[in-house]
Amino acid sequence: ASQAVQSALSEFDAQLVQQQSATTAELTRLRNQVAEFGARVRAVDATPSRQWKLLEAEYLLAMASRKLRFERDVIAAIALYELADTALAESASDEAYPLRQALAGELASLRAVELPDTESLFLRLDILLAQADSIALEGTSIDGMRTAFQSEELFTSVPETGRAPKAETSLPRQLMDESFDFLRSVFVWRRLDEPAQALVAARLGGARELKLILEQAKLALLAGDEILFDRQLDSARLWIERNGKQDMASVDAALTELDQLKGIALQPRLPLIGGALRGVAELNASTRL
Question: Residue 87 and residue 58: Cα distance in Å, rounded?
Answer without folding.
Answer: 9
